[in-house]
Write a structure and sequence with these properties.
This protein is 39% helix and 20% strand. It is α/β, with parallel strands linked by helices and 230 residues long. Strand 8 and strand 9 form a beta hairpin. The longest helix is centred in the C-terminal third of the chain and has 14 residues.
Length: 230
């Protein structure tokens, strides 16, 4: 069986070495790049199964690299786990918003790192989404990754796109935060439920006039409905 290839983008060789040894012992094939340019060369040569991306790098930051890779069709769905010494909530949200699937704050244990890597790899097999969904005048097309309201395009981030897709496919149903984490983020053991609230808020901002379609059901969760006058 092919070992999952993990690209470690980390400028501190001692940390990269430690991560690589632990990955090798646990059935992964680690590759090391010390900056964005080296990481890009590795990715151009061979797309890894997952990237462990340090936030603070010489040259381009991990945040910039994550955004760049999310824009490229070839690397758009490549799993990214961010390594950061920043434990602050806004920084975590910024990492997720840039397209990271999860983040891990230094210092971390080997067991935590392995658990998060396995969780990210597991949930990269998301639910199959119908190519086009329409609720009222809101339409989402997974093939072209577009969202339109009354035929006009809306700019929606990658996580909000997945969240909207799931809500639209299961319209008029109430979903708890835990259910949304499970279905949209997958087996997301480590992300807190309030992360869902952050992404719902961002989704509403992106939807503009269609924002009222995403309803908060007090004490229960969220629902997408066409039963509102927008």
């Amino acid at each position: 069986m092919k070992k999952p290839r993990v690209l470690i983008v980390e400028d501190e060789s001692s940390i990269a070495e430690l991560i690589a040894v632990n990955l090798r012992h646990n059935g992964f094939e680690p590759i090391w790049a010390e900056d964005g340019a080296a990481a890009q060369r590795e990715i151009d040569a061979y797309l890894p199964d997952l990237v462990l991306l340090d936030w603070m790098l010489p040259g381009q930051s991990g945040l910039q690299l994550a955004r760049q890779w999310r824009k490229d069709p070839r690397t758009k769905s490549m799993p990214i786990l961010m390594l950061t010494a920043r434990g602050d909530e806004p920084d975590k949200v910024a990492g997720l918003d840039a397209g990271a699937d999860d983040y891990i704050t230094k210092p971390f244990s080997t067991q935590e790192m392995l658990a998060r890597i396995r969780a990210v790899l597991r949930r990269r097999a998301p639910e199959v989404v119908t190519e086009r969904v329409e609720i009222g005048e809101l339409a989402l097309d997974t093939a072209t990754h577009r969202v339109t309201w009354q035929g006009m395009p809306l700019k929606v981030g990658p996580t909000e796109f997945k969240l909207l897709g799931y809500l639209m496919q299961h319209a008029e149903r109430v979903h708890s935060r835990a259910q949304l984490l499970d279905k949209v983020w997958g087996d997301h053991v480590y992300i807190e439920e309030r992360t869902v609230d952050v992404h719902v808020k961002r989704l509403r901002e992106s939807l503009g006039p269609a924002a009222p379609m995403v309803e908060t059901v007090r004490g229960a969760g969220y629902r997408l409905t066409s039963q509102v006058t927008v």
